[in-house]
């Protein structure tokens, strides 16, 4: 039976790219761009690796998608991302004229798709995107929580080692 390529299917794909970020010790966020039922680009968080504060998963995926369609407008495209976009990425998504954004976990600290602000549907901007929130939310959120738990543990262990205590 062919797999149904629904929102959950593509979010699962974005989660696989989040794993690539995690393998590089980056905060595990992944993104894919889909057009006409096909994935045309993907990205994962690479800020630390690239020494680039703008190297968020969405940013990388959108840049790649633009090259693929040879257009700076990504009309009729949907972005799937495991974490709610930040204001920087939300701005990019408006510029790119994406039709729709689907995200997994909410980001209470920097989320710009409804959590701290809603840049994607700001009335005074010239383009608004359709938003679907909370697809595979628990899996996306748990991946991030587990990452931060592990990192806190590692930092604690490193401090102990440095202080010579056991
Ligand atoms: Zn971002």
From TrEMBL:
Binds 1 zinc ion per subunit. Pfam families: dCMP_cyt_deam_1 (PF00383). Its EC number is 3.5.4.33. Transmembrane segments: none annotated. Its cofactor is Zn(2+). InterPro entries: APOBEC/CMP_deaminase_Zn-bd (IPR016192), CMP_dCMP_dom (IPR002125), Cytidine_deaminase-like (IPR016193), tRNA_aden_deaminase (IPR028883). One of its GO terms (molecular function) is tRNA-specific adenosine-34 deaminase activity. Residues 5-116 form the CMP/dCMP-type deaminase domain. SUPFAM superfamilies: Cytidine deaminase-like. Zn(2+) binds at residues 56, 86, 89. It is an enzyme of class 3 (hydrolase). It catalyses: adenosine(34) in tRNA + H2O + H(+) = inosine(34) in tRNA + NH4(+). Keywords: Hydrolase, Metal-binding, tRNA processing, Zinc. The active site is at residue 58. It comes from the Bacteria. One of its GO terms (biological process) is tRNA wobble adenosine to inosine editing. PROSITE patterns: CYT_DCMP_DEAMINASES_1, CYT_DCMP_DEAMINASES_2. Homodimer. Belongs to the cytidine and deoxycytidylate deaminase family. ADAT2 subfamily. Catalyzes the deamination of adenosine to inosine at the wobble position 34 of tRNA(Arg2). This is tRNA-specific adenosine deaminase. The lineage of its organism: Bacteria, Pseudomonadati, Pseudomonadota, Gammaproteobacteria, Alteromonadales.
């Amino acid at each position: 039976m062919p797999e149904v390529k629904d929102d959950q299917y593509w979010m699962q794909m974005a989660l696989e790219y989040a794993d690539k970020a995690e393998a590089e010790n980056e905060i595990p966020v992944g993104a894919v761009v889909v057009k006409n039922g096909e994935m045309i680009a993907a990205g994962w968080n690479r800020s630390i690796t690239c020494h680039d504060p703008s190297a968020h998963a969405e940013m990388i995926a959108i840049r790649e998608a633009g090259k693929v369609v040879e257009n700076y407008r990504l009309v009729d495209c949907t972005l799937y991302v495991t974490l709610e976009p930040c204001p920087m990425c939300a701005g990019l998504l408006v510029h790119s004229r994406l039709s729709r954004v689907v995200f997994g976990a909410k980001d209470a600290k920097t989320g710009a798709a409804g959590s701290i602000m809603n840049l994607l549907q700001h009335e005074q901007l010239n383009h608004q995107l359709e938003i679907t929130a909370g697809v595979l939310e628990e899996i996306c959120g748990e991946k991030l929580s587990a990452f931060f738990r592990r990192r806190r543990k590692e930092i604690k262990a490193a401090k102990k080692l440095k202080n010579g205590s056991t």
